Amino acid sequence: GAVVSQHPSWVICKSGTSVKIECRSLDFQATTMFWYRQFPKQSLMLMATSNEGSKATYEQGVEKDKFLINHASLTLSTLTVTSAHPEDSSFYICSASPGIYRNTIYFGEGSWLTVV
Amino acid sequence: QKEVEQDPGPLSVPEGAIVSLNCTYSNSAFQYFMWYRQYSRKGPELLMYTYSSGNKEDGRFTAQVDKSSKYISLFIRDSQPSDSATYLCAMNSGNTPLVFGKGTRLSVIA
Fold first, then answer.
1. Which of A2, A56, A87, B49 is deepest in the core (most CB within 10 A)?
2. pLDDT tens digits for B4-16?
3. Closest CA–CA distance from residue B11 to any residue of chain A (Å)
């Protein structure tokens, strides 16, 4: 099946610093990429949708200035958590879709962020 | 009523059992239905993808969609300990974000 790679898998950072997470589609061009956040034993919470070459669409309640998303190419999207705080510690997962329709979505392996 | 309802479990079954996982939904516009498997601390893995009503089989897994009842199921035959994971249903109407169930935690005991 399609492969979506996410990096890093684990990251620990100090409070106040910024962290960048990369999401790559390895064997298809991803017109649309999604970023999710997941708390322990809870379902996925969609944070934002990004389309290649345009600004990301953020879900209600997600701070766009804190969670910067860039989708500069058809195979790469990045999520930057700016001025991270301990409450930003979470499991962040990206997903990618090969078409303009938001189905047949493949997920990355996820990135565990711990802010200390 | 939530858009997608899924029993969170946990569901514990003996090895070899047939497992039935279910979701109900309220939005009649949903046409695309997916089941994902998520192991602890990993990203979800697409298991089954179904369009509209009907059945789809892949190895030990069978997905069923009943749009008239707004009910979808995933059956796992001859369950194995390696099937122990959280199973998430997801669905959308095509050009809208996926809506996920909360996931059902399954444990298959050897």
1. A56
2. 999 888 999 999 9
3. 14
